[in-house]
Design a protein that fits this description.
- The complex is a heterodimer of chains A (224) and B (228).
- With 224 residues, chain A is mainly alpha-helical.
- Chain A is 78% helix and 0% strand.
- Chain A has a single domain, classed as MetI-like (MetI-like fold), CATH 1.10.3720.10.
- In chain A, helix 1 packs across helix 9, helix 6 packs antiparallel against helix 7 and helix 7 packs antiparallel against helix 9.
- With 228 residues, chain B is mainly α.
- In chain B, helix 6 packs across helix 8.
- Helices cover 79% and strands 0% of the residues of chain B.
- Chain B is elongated.
- Chain B has a single domain, classed as Orthogonal Bundle (MetI-like fold), CATH 1.10.3720.10.
- The chains are: A mainly alpha (224), B mainly alpha (228).
- The interface between A and B is large, with 40 and 42 residues.
- Chain A: It is a multi-pass membrane protein.
């Protein structure tokens, strides 16, 4: 239990929150790289996955990309970026590595979500004279939403947890608190850093769940 | 020695590196494979009984699934650091961390696989006088195998990628080579280790896919061309 109280003491020390290596700065970096990576990955993967799902083609592609994605060691990708000219581009190496990491689950869930929509509903919509675009917007997209959102949530949690690896190659984020604690054999600081990252991941998940509920609620009201 | 040495010019691709440091690469690869195999096997040995427990006693579902999901949000870097006081700088440390990550995937897939067994199949087996153990071993587990194997493939591939982070405690297999090469910008070593790591993951995935086909011959018949 000593470690827990030590970590709490570390976290509640005001001096640890300010300054260039402070929690505030590291948290801001972490949120920035995770948020940017998630937004870029979503912007690239979701339209592609949804579109392939609508067409009913490229299933093998969507599933295989997901498997290949898991095989990519983020640490290795980051390390390669850090010996390339990209190292001088601020947070770019971390963001790009995280985008590569986040895209596969987003793509797969978007594809599977649309694909698994009840075909009878799609046929009925077609029978009612809906065009492909209308079927996509009014039938497939709303019914696929839960699966797509699950993909976004798990991608977000994994990105937040994985962004810590950036510290291993000297990039920013909360991982730096962990590596700094590690370098000085300060277990309390390592625990504090891990707790901060886990809390941030859970907070992100919570926010996404709440946003999803709010959105679903809005929809129900406007459609009534 | 007339030709310019690619080790001196620090090229990304360098035959000289592969020739002179082949042994180092092989050692790192073997450590990587060892850590991955141990992690996935231990995780499987823990996950299947856990999934069976959750299925038999649904009130354990919340805690077990919640805990394994929570473990997944702990960053790998922190996980290895946090386990340090218990294991020291050993391979057991990295294996334990990786087991905890693989558990999430394996428990979920085992449960999903068992849930996908049709109820009428289960009832038919019971009607034929199968006891619950024989039902599990001869009917449920074989039918759950495709989903379970999908989980094992997922867990193996992500474990191979995650093992590199173990280099933070010096037991990261190919990750060690990457970490060693980082301060000196040793490009050939970095690229060779990274590529080997991805190749290892792809090879493992294909091997497991082959194993799955061997273990589930009936699935092949069903999806054979003209079989529909």
């Amino acid at each position: 239990m000593g470690v827990v109280t030590d970590a709490w003491a570390w976290l509640t020390t005001g001096a640890h929150w300010t300054g260039e290596d402070g929690i505030g700065q590291r948290l801001a970096e972490h949120v920035y790289v995770s948020g940017a990576a998630l937004l870029i990955a979503s912007a690239l993967a979701l339209p592609l996955g949804l579109w392939l799902g609508h067409l009913g083609r490229g299933g093998a592609l969507a599933v295989n990309v997901s498997n290949v994605g898991r095989a990519i060691p983020v640490f290795a990708v980051l390390a390669l970026f850090m010996v390339s000219p990209l190292r001088n581009a601020g947070y770019v190496p971390t963001v790009v590595a995280l985008v590569l990491f986040a895209m596969p689950p987003l793509l797969t869930n978007a594809y599977v979500g649309v694909r698994e929509v009840d075909r009878a509903a799609v046929r009925a919509a077609r029978g009612m004279g809906m065009t492909g675009g209308q079927i996509f917007r009014r039938v497939e997209l709303p019914l696929a939403r839960p699966v797509v959102m699950t993909g976004i949530r798990s991608a977000a949690v994994q990105v937040v947890a994985t962004a810590t690896v950036a510290a291993m190659v000297g990039q920013g984020g909360l991982g730096r608190i962990i590596t700094a604690g590690f370098a000085t054999y300060d277990t309390a600081q390592v625990v504090a850093g891990a707790v901060l990252v886990a809390l941030l991941a859970l907070l992100v998940e919570g926010v996404l769940v709440a946003a999803d509920r709010l959105f679903a609620h809005d929809r129900r009201l406007t459609e009534r | 020695m007339g030709a310019p040495n690619c080790l001196v010019t620090n090229d990304w691709i360098c035959g000289e590196y592969l020739r002179t440091r082949g042994e180092e690469l092989t050692d790192a690869l073997l450590q990587h494979v060892g850590i991955t195999v141990a992690s996935v096997l231990i995780a499987l040995a823990v996950a299947v009984p856990l999934a069976l427990l959750v299925r038999a006693r649904p009130r354990f579902a919340g805690p077990v699934l919640g805990l394994t999901t929570l473990l997944y949000t702990v960053p790998s870097l922190a996980m290895f650091s946090l386990l340090l006081p218990f294991f020291g700088l050993s391979a057991a440390l990295v294996v334990t961390g990786l087991v905890l990550y693989a558990l999430t995937i394996l428990v979920r897939n085992t449960l999903a696989g068992l849930a996908a067994v049709p109820a009428e199949t289960r009832e038919a087996a019971r009607g034929m006088g199968y006891g619950s153990l024989r039902l599990l071993w001869q009917v449920e587990l074989p039918l759950a195998l495709p989903v379970l194997m999908a989980g094992i493939r997922m867990a193996t591939v992500s474990t191979i990628a995650l093992t590199t982070v173990g280099s933070v405690v010096g037991r990261g297999g190919l990750g060690n080579l990457i970490e060693d090469a980082l301060p000196t910008f040793f490009k050939a070593q970095m690229l060779a280790a990274s590529v080997l790591c991805v190749l290892l993951a792809v090879t493992a995935d294909l091997l497991l896919l082959g194993l799955q086909r061997l273990l589930t011959p009936w699935a092949r018949i069903r999806t054979a061309p003209g079989g529909e």
